[in-house]
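Weekly puzzle thread! Below is a chain. First person to post its structure in token form gets bragging rights.
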Amino acid sequence: MGHWLDDTAQGLAEGRFSRRQVLGRGGGVAAGALLASMAAPIRGLGAAMSGGTQCSDGHVCPVGKRCCGKSCCKADAVCCNGLCCSAGQVCCSGACCLKRDCRNGYCRCKTDSDCGPDQACCDGNCCAPNQECCGGNTCCLPTQCVNNECKCTADGDCSTPNQAGICCYLTCCSPDELCCIHGGSGDCCDRETEACCGAGCYDIETHECCGGRTGTMICDKATHHCCGRDCCDPATQTCCNNKICCSRSAPSQSCCGDACCDDARETCCGHKTCCKNARETCCGGESCCDKETEKCCGKHCYDPSNAICCKNTTLCSTDQQCCGTNCYDPKTQVCCANTTTCPQGQKCCGTQCYDPTKQGCCADKPYDREKQRCCGNKKLCAKDETCCGEACCKPGEKCANGRCTKGCGNQGPCPSGQVCCDTGKSAKCCSKGQMCCGTGTSATCCKPEDCVNGTCKSDCCSALGPTWMCCGPGSPCPGCCSRSGGGDCCSDAPVCAGVPCGGFGAPGTCS
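Winning reply:
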């Protein structure tokens, strides 16, 4: 039966059988079944016989139309997802609409009927079933519609079935818009013709944003220009320091750094601030001080009734005093060398402070008295060292004529109670009760009371007169006498009869 039906259907399609022949061959029931199953081939046969087009689903489109899903469209119409678009319409993501209404690949709706079930048409866009048209222009959830404005928290809050959205700081923007955020607010700008200026939009052809994207001032290029973050009118204003606009018309102003000074009543102070001519004076190029109640202290103003100025630099309260450029309280502090302030209980050592209970002061430097000693207020020596003029003698050394030595010349240390007198060329131990008088080559031993200005005066030569002096043991003629200021020690020739200086004998001749 199946084979017969196939053959019969093919015969009908090719024109080999007529309908009467089919009925005669198959009988009533078989013919009825065959005709029902062969409806499409018969229609196809009819379409072929009439010049129409058979579509893929079996229906036939008449001459002059073409298949479009289950529809037949005019030959010049656009087939769009089974729909025939009207003249002037385009296929926009499976829907027909005018080209101008096809935005971002989706058709803008006209009424709710253009959208699906439970969807609202909102300013040309179909909202999702769970959204509402907020303010008549934006789709969002009912909970996000506040005062007719959609407040989004994520891009998904702004998306609709037709297009994705952008959440621009609580404001929903479409994908072809630019999100501008600044200072806790956002705005949607046209990407092609606008740019961001803070949270606002401006036309890039006719306007400019002062201060870049973080600026907030928008200038009309035809009449104004940017001055930093401000907008100046070049006909009446001057841009100062690229920050502020100053007036050129009455009352005229002059630039003063980042300020504008009134030419009639103010003076620029140090290119920083404007001082009132009538009652202010400029201090240090920075501050404007009241002429009647204030004075200048460098670049600061102060009231002399409650402050003092130290060296035109530092301001101190009236219960303080100046210590150079520092302030100090004389009740609790000490000023050292007009430079340093020390707390109560400490003393000054030059420009430094020291604790007199633990420290000493030597040559204007504090030192630890448990570890050091001061020699002649000039030299600091270790505690186990002894002072020797400006030298420090270590343990085992003795001080001889301002020098530290372990002996006295070529001999050993002097006996107890005697001192070594070293001239640099020779050395001897002075007798008990004597001292080494003088320094260097003129040093000699005598009693302390006879040492006057580094010279021993009581000797045998003094009997010859006040102009005579004894030639010391380091001279070519030790024991001889010579006039002071004379030649060498052997001129004038008197001697003390071989008796060392300090005794007296008959004069003799130097040999």
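Puzzle host: Confirmed. Bonus trivia for everyone else. The longest strand covers residues 177-182.
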